């Protein structure tokens, strides 16, 4: 029994080892091959998915750059505030992209570390499989040695049972063979002990490798959890900085938008004030011109009236002088009645001219109003055209943004379908499946957050565009209402202008009639003046004929023509008494 006890223990150990480890070795070997194949397939699929995601992100960046350039082109280039806002936003976007690229590089480094850990795990698995194969070979050798040992024990037992019989039969067996067999048996027992020690050492190595594999798998799971944990990502310093910068940029965008709207309102108010100032200047210019024309006409009329008054004074003086002569009272009375009728006619003419001036000034003011209203109407029509073009551009931009949103949704739908297909096609262990599903959920969550952020930005832009369109539509409606009012005023002014033009035509006809009457009166006045001149000439001739001159030296009377000849000579002497006299000594006397 003492000899058989170690053999029974070895048999039990070998049987258990063959029942457990050998089958596990075969099954783990097959499972390891399947895992390697599935790992290669999944890595290729993951690489293709990552490439598609990177291309999608690049396309989104290119699209955002195109939207930014289009928005900058749509904006007017004269506002420094808008240029500063666009440059600040561009710097913020560049910083966000740099941080995103840093996160992407960190993700790449973590993925490379994950791949290194996977490679180490695969290497450890390969070493484990190699050790399992070596263990299987040692087990086979151990079985063979056990089989040989069993045969040797059987031979020894048989030899022990035969030896007494041989001694009884007085047969002698040589002791050298027995010693050799015992020596071989001892050698086999020593080799068996060595093999048992080697197997226990290999078993300890396998246990340590299994523990190391478990530890590496735990580290791998921890790394995957850290990669997939959204809380860890959101609580990271870079993510917090990016979120703070996004909030700050949003606040700055809202502030600059409010400032832009305020500046736009101030600009509109200044434009209206400038237009009112231009209209007032035009009206003032028209009024000044009309006042200058009326002043010029008034000055002409005053000059003519002054001239007529002077002529009247001359005529009155001549009439007074003529009134001294006999036989002219009737002519003088006619002249006085004619001269007295002149002020009444001039007053009536001045009243009519004043009325004509007032009507002419009203017509000029109405013409100026019509011109100003027509210019305002043209400006309003141009503004309506500009608003309509701007609203059409904004509608086109909204449609294009909606198309972009639709494309992004379709791409998200395609990615979800690819993810579902990949989940259906993947055949792996439960732990790997859970890890991959968690990874895919995290990626889907990231993509959904990105798409929701893009949709939020697009919705915000669409909202702002809609608000701008509503404001433009409101302004367009107010402009159309103002245009309708201006058109109504223009029609009223046109009707008034037609009425005033009719009145002006009638006044022009009356003016022509009055002018013809004035011309006839002036012709009659010229005829009367020529007649008056003729009569005055006759009077002067009679006066010259009736004038007597007296020489104050001797007081002799002579006719004017007789004394004029003597006064023209050098030696002035009285024809009657020959008294010399000077030029001042001759005085006229009316008899």
UniProtKB/TrEMBL annotation:
It catalyses: S-ubiquitinyl-[E2 ubiquitin-conjugating enzyme]-L-cysteine + [acceptor protein]-L-lysine = [E2 ubiquitin-conjugating enzyme]-L-cysteine + N(6)-ubiquitinyl-[acceptor protein]-L-lysine. PROSITE patterns: ZF_RING_1 (PS00518), ZF_RING_2 (PS50089). Pathway: Protein modification; protein ubiquitination. Residues 549-578 form the RING-type domain. Its main location: nucleus. SUPFAM superfamilies: RING/U-box. The keyword Manganese does not apply. Its EC number is 2.3.2.27. InterPro entries: E3_ubiquit_lig_Bre1 (IPR013956), Znf_C3HC4_RING-type (IPR018957), Znf_RING (IPR001841), Znf_RING/FYVE/PHD (IPR013083), Znf_RING_CS (IPR017907). It is found in: Nucleus. GO terms for cellular component: nucleus. Keywords: Chromatin regulator, Coiled coil, Metal-binding, Nucleus, Transferase, Ubl conjugation pathway, Zinc, Zinc-finger. It is an enzyme of class 2 (transferase). GO terms for molecular function: ubiquitin protein ligase activity; zinc ion binding. One of its GO terms (biological process) is chromatin organization. It comes from the Eukaryota. Residues 125-198, 462-496 form a coiled coil. Belongs to the BRE1 family. This is E3 ubiquitin protein ligase. The lineage of its organism: Eukaryota, Viridiplantae, Streptophyta, Embryophyta, Tracheophyta.
């Amino acid at each position: 029994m003492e000899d058989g006890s170690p053999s029974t223990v070895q048999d039990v150990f070998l049987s258990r080892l063959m029942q457990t480890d050998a089958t596990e070795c075969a099954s783990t070997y097959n499972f390891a091959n399947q895992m390697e194949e599935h790992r290669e397939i999944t890595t290729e699929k993951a690489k293709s998915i990552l490439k598609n995601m990177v291309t999608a992100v690049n396309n989104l960046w290119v699209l955002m750059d195109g939207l930014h350039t289009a928005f900058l082109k749509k904006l007017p280039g004269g506002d420094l505030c808008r240029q500063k806002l666009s440059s600040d936003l561009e710097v913020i976007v560049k910083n966000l992209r740099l941080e995103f690229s840093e996160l992407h590089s960190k993700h790449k480094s973590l993925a490379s570390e994950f791949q290194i850990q996977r490679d180490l795990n695969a290497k450890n698995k390969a070493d484990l499989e190699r050790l399992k194969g070596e263990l299987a070979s040692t087990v086979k050798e151990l079985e063979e040695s056990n089989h040989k040992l069993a045969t040797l024990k059987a031979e020894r037992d048989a030899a022990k049972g035969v030896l007494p019989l041989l001694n009884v039969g007085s047969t002698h067996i040589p002791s050298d063979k027995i010693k050799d067999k015992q020596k071989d048996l001892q050698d086999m027992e020593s080799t068996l002990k060595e093999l048992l020690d080697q197997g226990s050492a290999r078993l300890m190595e396998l246990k340590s490798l299994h523990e190391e594999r478990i530890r590496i798998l735990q580290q791998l799971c921890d790394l995957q959890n850290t990669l997939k944990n959204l809380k860890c990502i959101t609580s990271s310093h870079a993510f917090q900085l990016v979120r703070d910068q996004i909030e700050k940029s949003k606040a700055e965008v809202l502030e600059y938008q409010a400032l832009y709207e305020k500046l736009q309102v101030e600009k509109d108010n200044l434009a209206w004030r400038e237009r009112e100032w231009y209209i007032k200047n035009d009206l003032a210019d028209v009024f000044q011109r009309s006042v200058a024309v009326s002043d010029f006409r008034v000055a002409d009329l005053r000059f003519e009236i002054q001239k007529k008054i002077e002529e009247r004074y001359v005529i009155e003086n001549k009439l007074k002088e003529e009134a001294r002569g006999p036989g002219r009272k009737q002519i003088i009375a006619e002249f006085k009645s004619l001269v007295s009728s002149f002020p009444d006619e001039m007053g009536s003419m001045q009243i009519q001219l004043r009325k004509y001036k007032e009507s002419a000034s009203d017509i000029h003011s109405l013409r100026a109003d019509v011109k100003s209203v027509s210019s305002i109407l043209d400006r309003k029509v141009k503004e309506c055209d500009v608003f309509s073009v701007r609203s059409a551009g904004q509608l086109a931009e909204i449609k294009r943004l909606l198309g972009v949103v639709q494309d992004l949704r379709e791409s998200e739908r395609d990615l979800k379908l690819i993810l579902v297909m990949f989940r259906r096609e993947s055949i792996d262990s439960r732990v790997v499946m859970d890890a991959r599903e968690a990874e895919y959920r995290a990626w889907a969550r990231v993509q959904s957050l990105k798409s929701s952020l893009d949709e939020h930005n697009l919705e915000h832009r669409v909202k702002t565009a809609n608000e701008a369109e509503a404001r433009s539509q409101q302004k367009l409606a107010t402009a159309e209402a103002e245009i309708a009012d201006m058109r109504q005023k223009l029609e009223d002014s046109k009707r008034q202008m037609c009425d005033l033009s009719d009145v002006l035509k009638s006044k022009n006809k009356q003016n022509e009639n009055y002018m013809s009457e004035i011309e006839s009166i002036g012709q009659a006045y010229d005829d009367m003046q020529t007649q008056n001149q003729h009569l005055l000439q006759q009077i002067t001739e009679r006066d010259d004929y009736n004038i007597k001159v007296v020489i104050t030296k001797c007081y002799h009377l002579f006719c004017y023509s007789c004394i004029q000849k003597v006064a023209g000579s050098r030696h002035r002497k009285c024809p009657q008494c020959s008294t010399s006299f000077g030029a001042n000594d001759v005085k006229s006397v009316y008899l």
